[in-house]
C-alpha cells in the first residue's frame, strides 16, 4: 500500500505535512490507498464493501492526497470503492499509461501536467469527459480536446529565503537571467527535469525564455554553481535554506504556493514563474469508465476543490473556492507568468531533456 503525500515528486516530508501545523489540520489525514480504501475500513466495521464491478482504479502521481473523511463520503454516496496505483511522478504516470494502453490495468488517472498533456493526447486512447467544468476551469483545458480535465493548477517559480538575503545584504534576483550573475553563484538548487515535474517546468521556462540560447544558459547556470537534486523533496527540504532542512542554498525551484507553508519567511519571484496544470482523464478501454467519470466529477466538486490547497498545496480550478488566509497573504499567483507553446513542448520535450542531460553530464 502507498502512503499519499505532497504534490510533486517527494515522499515523506511535504507542504501538506507542514500545512497540518500551519492551518491546524492535524485531524486531516491522507488516506492510504493502493489496495485499501475508505470502504475497506467501513467493511471492517461491518459495512458493505460492494462487489468487484464497483471498484474504480485510478493511476495518480505519488503525491495525490485527499481527506480520508471526504473520500469515504464519496464511496458511500456513489457506491464505488476507490483504489489507486502511484508509479511515481507525473512523467512516470504518462509513461505507464502509454505502455499499458492496449491492456489497461486502471480506469482513469490524475496528475498528468500540461507539459506532458499533448504527449498523452497524441496516443489517442482517452475518452472525452462527459461532465461539466466550472467556468473558471475552461480556460485551463487543453485546446481542442475534452479528454483531459483540469483539476488543479499552480505556478513553478524560484523561491527565495528572504531572511538569508536580508542578512547578507543582497538584492533578490528578479529574472531567470539574473540567476547566472556571479552575485548568485552557488545559491540556487533545482531538481532533475527527467525525474521532477517542477524541474521539467523550470526547463520549459528556460527554453521559452531563451530559445536556441537555452543550452548556453544552462552552461552558465552550471558554471555559476547551481545544484541539481534528484527530486523536488530533496531540493526543498534538504538543500533549501528557507525550509525545515535549513540547507546552504537560499534559492530553490518550487511553487508560488510554497511561501504559505513558511509563513512569510520565503517569497516566490514573479519574473521566473511558469504555469502548471494537473489533469485527470478516463481510458478508452477502461473496465469501469463510469466509475472513473464519477471520480472526476468528485474531484471537480466544491468539497474536493476546497480540499486541494490543504492536501496537495495547489490552487483549485474552481476560482469560487475561498483559499486559506495564509494563501491570500503569501501565495499569490503572478498575473504574467512565462507562457510556453505547449505543442512545441510536446514536439521538443525529449530533445530538450536529452540536451539538458548532455549539458549536465559534461559540466
Automatic annotation (TrEMBL):
Keywords: Signal. SUPFAM superfamilies: Periplasmic binding protein-like II. GO terms for cellular component: outer membrane-bounded periplasmic space. It holds the Pfam family SBP_bac_6. GO terms for biological process: thiamine transport. One of its GO terms (molecular function) is thiamine binding. Residues 1-42 form the signal peptide. NCBIfam families: sfuA. This is Thiamine ABC transporter substrate-binding protein.
Amino acid at each position: 500500500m502507498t502512503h499519499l503525500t505532497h504534490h510533486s515528486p517527494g515522499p515523506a516530508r511535504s507542504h501538506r505535512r507542514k500545512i497540518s501545523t500551519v492551518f491546524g489540520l492535524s485531524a486531516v489525514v491522507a488516506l492510504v490507498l493502493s489496495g485499501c480504501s475508505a470502504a475497506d475500513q467501513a467493511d471492517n466495521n461491518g459495512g458493505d464493501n460492494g462487489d468487484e464491478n464497483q471498484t474504480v482504479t485510478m493511476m495518480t502521481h505519488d503525491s495525490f492526497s485527499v481527506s480520508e473523511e471526504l473520500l469515504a463520503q464519496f464511496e458511500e454516496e456513489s457506491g464505488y470503492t476507490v483504489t489507486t496505483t502511484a508509479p511515481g511522478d507525473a512523467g512516470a504516470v504518462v509513461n505507464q499509461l502509454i505502455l499499458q494502453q492496449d491492456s489497461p490495468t486502471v480506469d482513469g488517472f490524475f496528475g498528468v501536467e500540461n507539459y506532458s498533456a499533448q504527449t498523452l493526447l497524441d496516443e489517442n486512447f482517452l475518452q472525452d469527459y462527459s461532465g461539466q467544468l466550472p467556468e473558471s476551469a475552461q480556460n485551463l483545458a487543453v485546446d481542442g480536446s475534452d479528454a483531459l480535465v483540469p483539476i488543479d493548477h499552480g505556478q513553478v517559480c524560484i523561491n527565495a529565503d528572504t531572511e538569508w538575503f536580508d542578512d547578507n545584504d543582497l538584492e533578490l534576483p528578479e529574472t531567470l537571467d539574473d540567476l547566472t550573475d556571479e552575485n548568485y553563484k552557488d545559491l540556487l538548487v533545482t531538481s532533475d527535469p527527467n525525474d521532477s515535474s517542477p524541474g521539467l517546468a523550470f526547463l520549459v521556462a528556460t527554453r521559452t525564455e531563451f530559445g536556441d540560447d537555452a543550452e548556453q544558459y544552462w552552461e552558465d547556470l552550471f558554471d555559476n554553481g547551481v545544484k541539481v537534486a534528484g527530486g523536488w523533496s530533496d531540493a526543498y527540504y534538504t538543500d533549501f535554506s528557507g525550509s525545515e532542512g535549513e540547507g546552504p542554498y537560499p534559492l530553490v525551484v518550487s511553487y508560488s504556493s510554497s511561501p504559505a507553508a513558511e509563513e512569510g519567511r520565503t517569497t516566490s519571484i514573479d519574473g521566473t514563474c511558469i504555469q502548471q496544470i494537473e489533469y485527470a482523464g478516463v481510458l478508452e478501454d477502461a473496465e469501469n469508465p463510469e466509475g472513473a467519470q464519477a471520480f472526476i466529477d468528485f474531484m471537480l466538486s466544491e468539497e474536493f476543490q476546497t480540499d486541494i490547497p490543504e492536501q496537495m498545496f495547489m490552487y483549485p480550478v474552481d476560482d469560487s473556492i475561498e483559499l486559506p488566509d495564509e494563501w491570500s497573504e503569501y501565495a499569490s499567483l503572478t498575473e504574467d507568468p512565462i507562457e510556453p507553446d505547449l505543442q512545441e513542448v510536446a514536439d521538443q520535450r525529449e530533445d530538450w531533456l536529452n540536451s539538458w542531460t548532455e549539458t549536465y553530464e559534461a559540466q
